[in-house]
Amino acid sequence: MGGWCHESLMAISHAWIVRLEARSCFFSAPREFTEEKFGQAEKTELDAHFENLLARADSTKNWTEKILRQTEVLLQPNPSARVEEFLYEKLDRKVPSRVTNGELLAQYMADAASELGPTTPYGKTLIKVAEAEKQLGAAERDFIHTASISFLTPLRNFLEGDWKTISKERRLLQNRRLDLDACKARLKKAKAAEAKATLWNDEVDKAEQELRVAQTEFDRQAEVTRLLLEGISSTHVNHLRCLHEFVKSQTTYYAQCYRHMLDLQKQLGSSQGAIFPGTFVGTTEPASPPLSSTSPTTAAATMPVVPSVASLAPPGEASLCLEEVAPPASGTRKARVLYDYEAADSSELALLADELITVYSLPGMDPDWLIGERGNKKGKVPVTYLELLS
């Protein structure tokens, strides 16, 4: 008799515990999380596809942050300036216009020319270079502005908008899962109590009802989160389009820089030839090391500098007609073209990368240029675009 009373009291106590736990089914997420960490509770696992979506979303977020930060460094190397721009953006104020390094260098050169003498050879050159640096600075400013709008802004919008929404829904899903696992645990305890005392079998019904509610909430939240995670594919498409815009703006910027420097070098060509005289006749090598001495990888990665355009004829004589120019009896060589080259005028020969042409020099020619022949076409070609073959 005493044993039966003892077992009844134990069953009743257990049932009361189940009832008290059931009342707090949806408020035990922290405890359930702690028990899972210590391996004391079962955990509802997400399906493999969902886990892959989570992993891809995390990777997208991490790499977007890294690309964003490094692009900011590329566009603005000065960390103090980046902090200042960040504060202006957070305060929703317009970032003040800042002089680029090229524009500042142009101002220094112009001031130096004014003080040292604008009519001297040095002063005249300073003025010409200052104008080119000013153009480079303006091109850099346009590039920074375009890249910020077309590339940086979409990346920031993702991190500060879409990703925050995804993170919020993921936290809600985590809480729904913990509630679901807690309800599963309570149902298990209620069934164990029911086996010992049928008096409290209503607790099983309550636990099952709470479990159904928790399962419904979890499934609903999982679907919401899944749709957001699948939207990462659209994010990739958007970032791909922005990446193309970034490359386009960067290409435009470097093309402008190349054109400005090419124009500058042509302006300085005559003075450069007077200061650094040299010849290349027959098989004589140019004064500067040829590009063929470098590896193909290095040559392909280096933007060639087009030499100044000089007259084919010696100083004081009329320019030679290309149709009348004949190759010397000896001294012609084969050359492989390293880069595409667009002829600036009718006296030059357009080049395509990797094609082979015949080249030679004439007495009095600028050492940075050769005569190139391809079939029945003939014209001046820059040495820096060629790999002279033995």
| Shape verdict | elongated
Number of strands: 5
| Tally of contiguous helical segments | 10
Order the strands across the largest sheet as they lie in space.
4-3-2-1-5
Biggest β-sheet, characterized? 5 strands, antiparallel
Q: From N to C, what is the helix and strand string? A: HHHHHHHHHHEEEEE
**Which percent range fits the helix content?**
55-70%
Instruction: Calculate Rg over CA atoms.
Output: 38 Å
Low-confidence stretches: 1-6, 8-27, 272-318
Proportion of beta-strand residues: 5-15%
- The mean pLDDT is 77
Q: What structural class do helix, strand and pairing data support?
A: alpha+beta
Gap from first CA to last CA: 114 Å
